[in-house]
Design a protein that fits this description.
This protein has about 325 residues and is of the alpha+beta class. About 45% of the residues lie in helices and about 15% in strands. Bound molecules: zinc ion. It comes from Lophiostoma macrostomum CBS 122681.
Length: about 325
C-alpha cells in the first residue's frame, strides 16, 4: 500500500514561460558549472525588479493528501500525463528537457513515467493547484537566494523578483525548500532533487555554517513567539509595558537576523511583526517604516490578497494614530 505513495508533497518546490511576459533581456539561460543549466542576469537588477512572470504550462488539482506521504504519485502522474498530451510538441519537448531525479526502484516500476519525476522536481504549489513553469524551473536553488517568488492567482502567473542587487552575469537563485532549517535539515530535503547544495550558506567554513544554522533556528523560534503575541494591544499595566518593550526589541533583532541571513522569503512577515511591536510601544516612526516595508513587499506579490489588505489597514492605522498623537501634543503645548 505504502509503495503506491511517494513523498510527493515534500518534493514539490515550496518553502516563488509558456507565456513569460517579463522582458526577455533581463536574463539568459546557459550552462552553470556542476548544475546543468542555470539562469543568469543579463542586466543589473535592483531589489524588487521582476525577473520572470510565467503562466503554468501544466496545472493540476492534486488528489487528496495522505498524511505523512503526500499525494498519491500514480494519481498525480495520470493527471499530468492527460494535460501533457494536449500540449504542442515544442512545449512537450521543453518539459521533457527539464531536470528530473528518480530512484532506481521508481524507474524499475512497470508503470514508470518519466514525466512524473520531472513534474515532482519542478512543479510549485500555486494556490490550491500545482503548476509547472518550465522557464522558472531552470533557476537553480540556493539556501541564500537572491530572488523570491510568489503565485499571483488573479494573473495566473508565478512571479520571480530580485531581493537584493544582482550584477550582470550573476546567477539567479531561488529556494526550493523552507529556509529556516539547519544545513543538515536542508540537505535532507534537497536529497529528493538529487543534488548536494554548494550555496554560500552550505559551503561556508564550519564556524560560519554553525552560526548560520543557529541564526536560522533562532529566527524560526522568534517568529513563532512574536506571532503568538502579535495582536495589537495597548499596554495597560507596567509589567505589560515592560514585556512589550522586550517584544519590540526582539522584533528588531529578528529583522536584523533575517536581513543578515538573507532569507528574503521571510522579510515581509518579519517587517510586519516589527511594525506591530513598535506600534505597541507607540514608536510610530519605526512602526510606520516597518509597516510600509511589509506593505510594499505584499503589494508586489498580490495587490488584492487578504495579507496585502491587512497590511494596508495596519499601515493606515499606524499613520493615523501617529498623526493624532502629534496633533494632540501640539494642542497641549499651545494650551499649557
Ligand atoms: Zn545551500
Amino acid at each position: 500500500m505504502l509503495g503506491t505513495f511517494v513523498l510527493f508533497l515534500l518534493c514539490i518546490l515550496d518553502a516563488a514561460a509558456f507565456s513569460v511576459s517579463g522582458p526577455p533581456e533581463v536574463y539568459t539561460v546557459r550552462s552553470s558549472p556542476g548544475k546543468g543549466f542555470g539562469v543568469f542576469a543579463a542586466v543589473a537588477l535592483e531589489p524588487g525588479s521582476i525577473i520572470m512572470r510565467e503562466t503554468p504550462v501544466i496545472k493540476i488539482t492534486p488528489p487528496p493528501l495522505h498524511e505523512g506521504f503526500g499525494h498519491a504519485m500514480r494519481e498525480v502522474g495520470v493527471l499530468v500525463r492527460e494535460v501533457f498530451e494536449t500540449l504542442p510538441k515544442d512545449s512537450q519537448a521543453e518539459i521533457m528537457s527539464l531536470h528530473a531525479y528518480s530512484t532506481t526502484t521508481e524507474q524499475e516500476r512497470p508503470d514508470y513515467d518519466e514525466l512524473v519525476p520531472i513534474f515532482r522536481c519542478n512543479a510549485y504549489y500555486s494556490g490550491n493547484e500545482i503548476g509547472l513553469f518550465p522557464k522558472i524551473a531552470r533557476i537553480n536553488h540556493s539556501c541564500r537566494p537572491n530572488t523570491s517568488y510568489f503565485w499571483n492567482e488573479q494573473l495566473n502567473r508565478r512571479i520571480v523578483y530580485a531581493t537584493r542587487p544582482i550584477g550582470v552575469g550573476e546567477e539567479i537563485f531561488v529556494s526550493y525548500i523552507p529556509l529556516l532549517q539547519t544545513s543538515t535539515e536542508r540537505q535532507k530535503r534537497l536529497d529528493q532533487y538529487g543534488f548536494k547544495c554548494t550555496c554560500a550558506a552550505c559551503a561556508a567554513d564550519t564556524h560560519s555554517q554553525k552560526s548560520s544554522d543557529r541564526r536560522r533556528v533562532e529566527i524560526r523560534q522568534s517568529i513563532n513567539i512574536l506571532e503568538e503575541h502579535s495582536a495589537i494591544d495597548v499596554p495597560g499595566i507596567v509589567a505589560g509595558k515592560r514585556k512589550l518593550q522586550i517584544l519590540a526589541s526582539e522584533s528588531r533583532q529578528l529583522v536584523d537576523a533575517v536581513e543578515e541571513e538573507e532569507v528574503a522569503d521571510y522579510y515581509s512577515q518579519c517587517y510586519r511583526l516589527a511594525a506591530i511591536f513598535h506600534a505597541n510601544i507607540q514608536d510610530w516612526e519605526a512602526a510606520s517604516m516597518w509597516a510600509r516595508k511589509s506593505y510594499h513587499l505584499k503589494m508586489m506579490a498580490d495587490a488584492t490578497s487578504p495579507g496585502t489588505k491587512e497590511m494596508e489597514l495596519l499601515t493606515t492605522l499606524i499613520l493615523a494614530t501617529w498623526e493624532k498623537e502629534v496633533k494632540e501634543n501640539a494642542t497641549s503645548q499651545v494650551w499649557h
